[in-house]
Amino acid sequence: HSSNHQHQHPLHHHHHDLGAVCGSGALPLDGDATCRSDIEYLAASQKDNSTTQPTPEERRQCPHGADCDYQHKHAWTHSNQCFTSAKSNLEFCAFTDTSFANGRGTSFVMPARRADYIATSPAFTDPEVVAGVNQDLVRTIPAVYEMREFPGKGMGLVAAKLIRRGDLIMANTVSLVIDYRAFEDLPKEEYQQLQAFAVDNLPPAHRDAIMRLSTHFASDLPHIARVDKIAATNAFDIEPDADDAEQDHGFFVVFPEIARMNHDCRPNADYYFDHATLTQYIHATRDIAVGEEITLSYINPVMTRAARLRKLQRNWGFECACSACTQERALTEASDKRIRQINKLKDDLTSWAPGSRASPAMAELFVSLHQQERLESAMYEAYAFAAAEYNGVGEPWTAIKYARLAVDWGIPIVGPKDRDVLDMEALAEDPWGHWSWMLRSKKRFGPPEEKGEGAGDDE
Ligand SMILES: C[S@@+](CC[C@H](N)C(=O)[O-])C[C@H]1O[C@@H](n2cnc3c(N)ncnc32)[C@H](O)[C@@H]1O
């Protein structure tokens, strides 16, 4: 299934994984109430006036944590079409809430308990958190972009004013949300029927915005096939919330306005998804001049030209003609060499084994290669590696400099709640108390590591 790339967080050199409250292993499918974050329980229970919502204490005592979460049954405006998979025995339904996000509406295709779980998110229980999002079907703030046609690409967006790095370009709440298992487990006809049903039940303006989206030049498709082609051409992969009992199973999601952004291998914007607001945010990754096209990368950009072209052709069926793909041959070769070097250096920088060659100088090279490659979306990671390397040899001031850069470049790209951003904030505030403090020196010059469990690299 075609879908846009998602951020991976390759900065897994943490010895203390801030993101994982219950350890790093996958949760059993029926969940574990004690593993979930207290803050999220509080947020959900305080923001919901209904008395059926268990208190944080009640949730904690639930023998089957996951079931406690679904005591609150969301009032869906449409949820009368379902199919049960013979393959997995799961029942998938189309759920629509036409009042979601101030009447914009949203539709899900997934099992009922998962839909009810997602509906406990603040985006549903506290409409305030999504006020001001979705400035497109109904606009109250002037747009920083306009839509126009780009020869060979269909429609696209251009900057209508100077946009600075870090500026918010647009944000959309979830529109059409499909559990990957529906796609994998159901017969194609049933799956496509649920998907079309989900779209048809949205409020008309929203439904029409989806139906106008690109089918990548396919025409005269019957309605159900057209919806399927629109989903395949425009969907983003979304990773489930870490508290979702079914977190091993991802979604693909269509956002009707964001879907108008075309691909560039060196894009000037990037996106992240926030589960609390069920919103995809698009920010500028560098300054964008008036009249310049606003672009995203549909794939991981840290790939050689040939690999990028292959992937774009296979998943979206277009021949990438962005400047990084069409520059003269000598420049392409130089770029591919830098890409290969970036990927090699990353192995060293992510390794905290005593034999790793990583050093502050290597991290400086890593930062420079990203700048040379115009990989603004990945700069925060490079800065984070540099911060950890400097701190690892006891250079707190340079470590703080890079940690601050990582935070500033990371917030627009992965959001303020991202665990790497939080980790760098912690380093900038207290390098001496950070996990990386003197860690390289200790590993290289300290007593020999104990053999076996816990020794050496945490990868
Ligand atoms: C998510 S949509 C982007 C918006 C689309 N151009 C439209 O008219 O709504 C993805 C489709 O846009 C087109 N597209 C996006 N980036 C492109 C590029 N760099 N070159 C050519 N076509 C592109 C392809 O048809 C692709 O299947």
Automatic annotation (TrEMBL):
Keyword Oxidoreductase: no
Matches recorded under Gene3D superfamilies: SET domain
Protein name: SET domain-containing protein
Record's keyword terms, sorted: Signal
Record-linked CDD domains: SET_SMYD
Pfam families cross-referenced by the UniProt entry: SET (PF00856)
Domain SET: 142-299
Source organism superkingdom: Eukaryota
